[in-house]
Amino acid sequence: MKLAEIRNKLVAKGLRVSPQRLSIFEAIIKLNNHPTADDIAEFIKKDHSNIATGTVYKVLESLVSNGLIKKVKTERDVMRYDAILDIHHHLYCAESDFIKDYYNNEINELLSEYFKKNGIPGFEIEDIKLQINGKFLQED
Amino acid sequence: MKLAEIRNKLVAKGLRVSPQRLSIFEAIIKLNNHPTADDIAEFIKKDHSNIATGTVYKVLESLVSNGLIKKVKTERDVMRYDAILDIHHHLYCAESDFIKDYYNNEINELLSEYFKKNGIPGFEIEDIKLQINGKFLQED
DNA sequence: GTATGTGCAAACTTTTTGCACTTCG
DNA sequence: CGAAGTGCAAAAAGTTTGCACATAC
């Protein structure tokens, strides 16, 4: 995703384009393994200018509440963030607390077809995500 | 689940049967909406005897690492706990941060059949959970 | 110029830890 | 009795908040 694209997304939501917003958004995309607030802060401090921790949280919050990124949580005790790129699922290894995105349209269709036929009473489905738990093998 | 049953589960894992373990385990089952450590502590302090916060965390940790309960996390910032009763999925409403268990064997079979045919390269699947996001309608 | 965003540090919340004491088996 | 578990209080970790200052538009 190019900078101009990010800029557009911010503008489209009525958010001002500050360098902090840009670099946080960029960081999430580049650090694409579901970074924590701390990962993001470090990344920015390393490659770019300085940024306050409080700002990182405030910006993340505004991006989340504007639907530009998502919060992801694992069994560990920190929040992780995820750019919203596409419908994807998560492969998760509890042992290493490592999350990897998993794309599979066949599954998406299988599920959406199933739930189109059989809804869930008392619940309005917005989207479905798989959390596939297990272990990563060598080649990762 | 009866007390005797809980007792057995503890013994089976080589854990000692302390009143704290029993009441924490019981609390998770009774407070069956994925209670937080704090919910559990309050519940125990109300209905039964006193318990230290540190103990609650220590006991939860031992139950989790012995596979007797599970940690569940939502987008909010506290950890929740879940008795392991059966294969189930979660209906989740981000707005209210409310989680409800969802049982559906048809889906389980659909998925396990699918992944039996088409594995995921580099990943060994242990189990699959659906997180179905959306909104609860009135009758909840 | 003004509403919005940022930096900073202090406060808050949740979870962890260490150690003396207690209890299960 | 001894190993395992608990209470307590202090500390760590993660996140939020308030307010003065800065900046995007």
Write a brief structural summary.
Chain A contains 5 helices and 5 strands; from the N terminus they run ααααββββαβ.
Supply the key terms:
homodimer; 140 residues; alpha+beta; 3-stranded mixed sheet; 5 helices; 5 strands; 42% helix; DNA-binding
Question: What does this 3D model show about the protein?
Answer:
Two copies of one chain form a homodimer. With about 140 residues, chain A is of the alpha+beta class. The first copy, chain A, has five helices and five strands; from the N terminus they run H-H-H-H-E-E-E-E-H-E. Chain A has helices at about 5-10, 20-30, 35-45, 55-65, 105-115; strands spanning about 70-75, 80-85, 90-95, 100, 125-135. In chain A, the strands form two sheets. Chain A has a three-stranded mixed β-sheet with strand order 4-3-5. In chain A, strand 3 and strand 4 form a beta hairpin. The radius of gyration of chain A is 17 Å and the shape is globular. Chain A starts with a helix and ends with a strand. The interface of A and B includes residues 77, 91, 128 and 136 of A. Strand 5 (about 125-135) of chain A pairs antiparallel with strand 5 of chain B. The structure holds a DNA duplex (25 and 25 nucleotides).
